[in-house]
Write a sequence for this structure.
């Protein structure tokens, strides 16, 4: 295949290294996103991070810097809105609409998705609008440089260490947040850890697959692994393996048939998930309707 024939090229080796790093990071963080049912919030974060990418491009600084700073502001806003509602944690709950008929998930969706519109408005004021917007939205893993690789490696190392150190507390918060608070754990701080980990992952993934498809790389491997594993340990390991596999296979498909690498990676994930829905032993129970708050995997 052409991918293996071009391994001598520096850009191909960097793309493969980025695919492995991003696959591991997204696979690990995605488990917490899936277990806490935060897919919608993660989608909103990918959209709301876009203005930071645009501002970084306009100022001529590294896009990860702009996206990271703006992303942390977004995380702070989400935590503040959730706290103002009176919840015990920093994550939006799926509680029914409160007084005035305002559902927090609806407010989050409207406010954070407005960030994407802000990014489009900023980008439209720049020459070369269509080309630049496409690059930011879908990424370009074949053009990552050594700086991107260093950022991905550092982000993956830090996030993985934090997730491993707080594994028991984070899983308890995912499965039984009431017990977490009753046990005296800092529930709000732990929720903020999850939010920051998700945002760091989104920002790190932008050079590879862009802001739009980052959600697929974060949720896809974990959602697929959940269909095969009953425990969170094996689920996490399989999720990271699937993230790496999708990255490598997607790059091979891109090189062989000359299609966009980001799209090929996400389509590979979609194919793995669809196949798992058909043959995985846990697919039938998980597609059945479950009571709210019931975990699908146990640690």
């Amino acid at each position: 295949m052409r991918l293996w024939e071009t391994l001598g090229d520096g850009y191909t080796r960097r793309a493969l290294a980025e695919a492995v790093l991003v696959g591991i990071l997204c696979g690990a963080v995605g488990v917490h996103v899936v277990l806490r049912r935060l897919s919608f919030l993660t989608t909103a974060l990918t959209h709301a991070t876009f203005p930071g990418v645009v501002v970084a491009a306009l100022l001529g600084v590294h896009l990860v810097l702009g996206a990271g700073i703006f992303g942390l502001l977004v995380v702070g806003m989400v935590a503040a809105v959730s706290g103002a509602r009176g919840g015990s944690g920093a994550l939006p709950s799926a509680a029914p609409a409160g007084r005035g008929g305002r559902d927090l998930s609806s407010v989050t969706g409207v406010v954070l998705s407005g960030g994407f519109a802000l990014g489009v408005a900023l980008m439209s004021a720049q020459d070369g609008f269509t080309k630049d917007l496409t690059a930011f939205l879908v990424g370009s893993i074949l053009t990552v440089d050594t700086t991107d690789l260093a950022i991905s490696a550092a982000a993956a190392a830090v996030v993985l260490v934090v997730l491993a150190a707080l594994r028991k507390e984070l899983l308890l918060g995912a499965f039984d947040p009431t017990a977490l608070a009753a046990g005296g754990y800092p529930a709000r701080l732990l929720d903020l850890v999850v939010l920051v980990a998700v945002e760091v992952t989104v920002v790190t993934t932008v050079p590879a697959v862009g802001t739009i498809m980052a959600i697929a790389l974060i949720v896809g491997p974990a959602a697929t692994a959940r269909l095969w594993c009953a425990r969170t340990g094996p689920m996490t390991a399989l999720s990271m393996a699937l993230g790496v596999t999708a990255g490598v296979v997607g790059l091979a498909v891109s090189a062989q048939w000359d299609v966009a690498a980001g799209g090929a990676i996400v389509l590979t994930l979609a194919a793995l998930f669809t196949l798992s829905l058909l043959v995985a032993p846990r697919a039938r129970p998980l597609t059945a309707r479950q009571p709210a708050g019931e975990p699908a995997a146990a640690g």
User: Anything to note?
Assistant: DSSP finds 13 helices and no strands in the chain. The two ends are 40 Å apart (CA to CA). The chain has a mean pLDDT of 81.
